[in-house]
Amino acid sequence: MRSATDVHLIAAGKYHDIDFARLELLKLLAEAPELRTSVTTGFADTERLAECALLITYTCDLMPQPGEVEALRAFVERGGRWLALHGTNSILRFDDAGKVTTPDDAPDFMGLLGTRFTGHPPIAPFKVTVTREHALTNGLRDFSTIDELYLCDVTADIDVLMHSAFEGGDCPDFARGDFPAQNVPILYLRSLRKGAVLYCSLGHCRGHYDLRPLSNYWPHPQRCSWDYPIFREILRRGIQWGVAGQD
């Protein structure tokens, strides 16, 4: 029998301090002692997923197999909640010049999520605006953070709860170069039948050794929005949204 308090956390991938993010998420989950959380590094454990009320993913360049995508879709459509964070919607490749490309190699997965990452400008402060009132945003004000501003293609109908603005221009690490001015979804809901996906693009983190083999040592560890209480409040609300099954 499925327990409404079971949570499944997938934390894995490239170029991020996954150990840090995993630990911080587990600390937040431990604030609710009635929750029982399993932890893994991939999408293969579909049997465990079927037992859970909430899936949380903090990944980068980690794509499920086609059968696993169908299991994810079935999980959400039957009423499951999925809190997808930061690089979950990212595929990263490098061209001959060392620039990052973001190929559209997993359209079914990105269609399920609702967005596909395409690039970001250098890490810098930016403002996040509360787009509309919702249980997930009630009482929250617009705020500023320092993070990767994730630009993306929207792949499905999404309900944007928070957004930022990109004035357009060059993203120097990415082969695409210039990106047009755009409103950028920061927090959104994507409903699928009885369940939903809640995606938040914030939460970049990197330690000294997380760019291997591209770089043996990254001199300046980055914690970005993890250093801001508002981000942890968004995560707490996302966890509560997931286990309570609220709209």
Write the layout of secondary structure elements.
Blueprint: E1 6-13, H1 18-30, E2 36-40, H2 46-49, E3 54-60, H3 66-77, E4 81-85, E5 93-94, E6 100-101, H4 107-113, E7 115-119, E8 124-130, E9 143-147, E10 151-154, E11 159-166, E12 169-170, E13 178-179, E14 182-192, E15 195-200, H5 229-244
Parallel strand pairs: 1-2, 1-3, 3-4, 4-15
Antiparallel strand pairs: 5-6, 7-10, 8-9, 8-11, 11-14, 12-13, 14-15
Summed up, what is this model?
This protein is 21% helix and 32% strand. The chain contains 5 helices and 15 strands.
Q: Can you walk through the features of this model?
A:
There is one protein chain. With 247 residues, the protein is α/β, with parallel strands linked by helices. 21% of the residues lie in helices and 32% in strands. It has helices at residues 18-30, 46-49, 66-77, 107-113, 229-244; strands at 6-13, 36-40, 54-60, 81-85, 93-94, 100-101, 115-119, 124-130, 143-147, 151-154, 159-166, 169-170, 178-179, 182-192, 195-200. It has a nine-stranded mixed sheet with strand order 2-1-3-4-15-14-11-8-9, sandwiched between helices. The chain has a two-stranded antiparallel ribbon with strand order 5-6. A two-stranded antiparallel ribbon has the order 7-10. The chain is globular, with a radius of gyration of 17 Å. The two termini are 23 Å apart.
Query: Helices and strands: which structural class?
Result: alpha/beta
Sheet-strand content, in percent, reads 25-35%
Task: Give the SSE string.
Answer: EHEHEHEEEHEEEEEEEEEH
How helix-rich are the residues, as a percent range?
10-25%
- Strand elements, count: 15
Based on Cα principal axes, name the global outline: globular
Number of helices: 5
Average pLDDT score: 96
Biggest sheet strand line-up = 2-1-3-4-15-14-11-8-9
**Unreliable residue stretches:** none
Radius of gyration: 17 Å
First and last CA, distance: 23 Å
Largest sheet, in brief, is: 9 strands, mixed
